[in-house]
């Protein structure tokens, strides 16, 4: 079932889970095109994400490691997160090859209250590896002003165990409700929710935390441990306004196994 959904998402890659953009991927020219697939990231029920700047304590600290991934080679955007000082994780359907990675860059301070001119962009165009079966890609970032991004913003830890049904989670993602406000800016958000099914499929869990196109590649984080329990990638039952019944993410143990393949 998940494989079928991934194929559907990839066929409309530029318009679905990664979010559509103008032909030139200018981060300040925000995407406002509707999602073209009914199998994409969705808002579940009433939209209740909050600005990441409203977080406190450990969740605020963890949110710093998540950023806006600009993908000019395919004219789209996704979300990515640091898993080490210089390695980011996103979805395979966002960046599936070294050609897709050309020119990729990430801003980890693409947040409310930060002016466009003050956003710091890290080149993250070094393609490490992709895993289509787990919709996961790893890229390496370069330093800016002599500092790697993880040294500035920290990085996330992937859980060694999968999330159980009913567990509390939050998804840190770069987005805004462009269906309601087409000119909105996809600043960093935190979407609270719970796991609907810890075994939605062999590969995935499902949850009711809100996302939209552009949220692909986000970390699904446990509220209790603040560790990554899934790699967000696709939603279920989306309509023409980006509303649906659930979102899904690749299980932590699968993400952990892929990271081990690249020495992380």
From TrEMBL:
<dbReference type="InterPro" id="IPR008256">
    <property type="entry name" value="Peptidase_S1B"/>
</dbReference>
<dbReference type="GO" id="GO:0006508">
    <property type="term" value="P:proteolysis"/>
</dbReference>
<keyword id="KW-0720">Serine protease</keyword>
<keyword id="KW-0645">Protease</keyword>
<protein>
    <recommendedName>
        <fullName>Serine protease</fullName>
        <ecNumber>3.4.21.-</ecNumber>
    </recommendedName>
</protein>
<dbReference type="GO" id="GO:0008233">
    <property type="term" value="F:peptidase activity"/>
</dbReference>
<dbReference type="InterPro" id="IPR043504">
    <property type="entry name" value="Peptidase_S1_PA_chymotrypsin"/>
</dbReference>
<dbReference type="Pfam" id="PF13365">
    <property type="entry name" value="Trypsin_2"/>
</dbReference>
<keyword id="KW-0732">Signal</keyword>
<dbReference type="InterPro" id="IPR009003">
    <property type="entry name" value="Peptidase_S1_PA"/>
</dbReference>
<keyword id="KW-0378">Hydrolase</keyword>
<comment type="similarity">
    <text>Belongs to the peptidase S1B family.</text>
</comment>
């Amino acid at each position: 079932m998940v494989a079928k959904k991934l194929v559907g998402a990839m066929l409309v890659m530029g318009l679905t889970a990664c979010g559509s953009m103008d032909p030139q991927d200018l981060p300040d020219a925000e995407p406002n095109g509707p999602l073209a697939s009914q199998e994409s990231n969705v808002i579940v029920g009433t939209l209740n994400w909050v600005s990441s700047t409203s977080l406190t304590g450990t969740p605020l600290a963890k949110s710093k490691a998540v950023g806006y991934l600009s993908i000019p080679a395919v004219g789209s955007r996704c979300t990515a997160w640091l898993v080490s000082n210089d390695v980011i994780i996103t979805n395979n359907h966002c960046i599936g090859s070294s050609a897709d990675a050309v020119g990729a860059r990430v801003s980890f301070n693409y947040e409310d209250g930060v002016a466009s001119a003050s956003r710091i962009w890290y080149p993250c165009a070094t393609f490490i590896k992709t895993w289509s079966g787990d919709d996961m890609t790893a890229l390496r970032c370069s330093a800016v002003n002599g500092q790697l991004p993880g040294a500035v913003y920290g990085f996330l830890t992937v859980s060694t165990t999968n999330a159980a049904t009913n567990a509390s989670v939050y998804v840190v993602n770069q987005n805004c409700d462009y269906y309601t406000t087409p000119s909105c800016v996809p600043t960093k958000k935190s979407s609270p929710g719970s796991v609907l099914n810890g075994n939605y499929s062999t590969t995935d869990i499902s949850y009711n935390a809100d996302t939209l196109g552009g949220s692909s590649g986000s970390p699904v984080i446990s509220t209790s441990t603040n560790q990554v329990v899934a790699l967000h990638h696709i939603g279920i039952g989306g309509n023409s306004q980006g509303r649906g019944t659930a979102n899904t993410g690749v299980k932590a143990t699968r993400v952990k196994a892929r990271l081990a393949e690249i020495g992380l």
